[in-house]
Amino acid sequence: MTTLTERRVPPLGGFNTTLLSIEIRRMLRNRRTVILALLLPAALLLIFGGQDGWQDDAGSGNVAAYILVSMAMYGAALTAAACGSAVALERSLGWSRQLRLTPLHPVAYVIVKTLTALTLGGIAIGVVNVVGILVGKADMPADVWVGCAAMCLLGTLTFAALGVFVGFVVPGENAMQVLGPGLALLSFLGGLFYPLDQFAGWVRDIAYWTPMYGVAEVVRAPLTHELPWYAVVNALAWLGLFTAGAAWRMSGDTARV
């Protein structure tokens, strides 16, 4: 017979679709998150995509298509990181400590946060692509368009995990104050705003080790047909590090902050 002192571990560590749907609806009610997901990526595309030379060839498309994919990745990364970093507010309210008193496994909690961020990141990707279609400047084959969008969604996982990790490290509202400028810098170094071949050699040497570099190369691979093996290693390594760091911090987060 089960005693009162025993606690039965739920299937999948406590992960379930009900918890996931509640988290997604909660984030969609956040105006700042919706603005990041809907307005910022589209605005970036219109700003950068209207520059001179957008009709020049780039892989199997044109420069406008190259910029579209890059801005979709930046918008998705920023949105996903913002969703993940919402854990900082939960910590400040003591909610994460309450969760530690339940059978919810730290990995299951991180997965819920990551999937929520992935959903909002997917919205950002969709908005950028719709705007790109409506504006009509981006030109690439349909299969390349779909492939880049799919890779972009996959790459969003890295920054969703980063947001959760930062949310456990940085207290309260300061999380996005760190992530916002940080992601802008990483995107600059990763070649989202400017091609890396325009940078000095020592800057490129640093860029190859940054989290955005590998993801950016993977995301644009269907368009550029270029994917160095070390870019794949970079992307997988940072995804693993951020996910492990988020799970580790959640496991030790028992105090109200």
TrEMBL record:
Q: Where is the ABC-2 type transporter transmembrane domain?
A: 18-221
Q: How does it sit in the membrane?
A: Multi-pass membrane protein
Ordered alphabetically, the record's keywords are: Antibiotic resistance, Membrane, Transmembrane, Transmembrane helix
UniProt keyword annotation of Membrane present: yes
Annotated transmembrane regions: 33-51, 63-89, 110-132, 144-171, 178-196, 227-248
Can you tell which superkingdom this protein's organism belongs to?
Bacteria
Alphabetized InterPro entries for the sequence = ABC2_TM, ABC_2_transport, Nod_factor_ABC_transporter
Q: Does the keyword Transmembrane apply?
A: yes
Q: Where in the cell is it found?
A: Membrane
Principal location listed in the UniProt entry: membrane
Q: Pfam families this protein is in?
A: ABC2_membrane
Annotated protein name in UniProt: ABC transporter permease
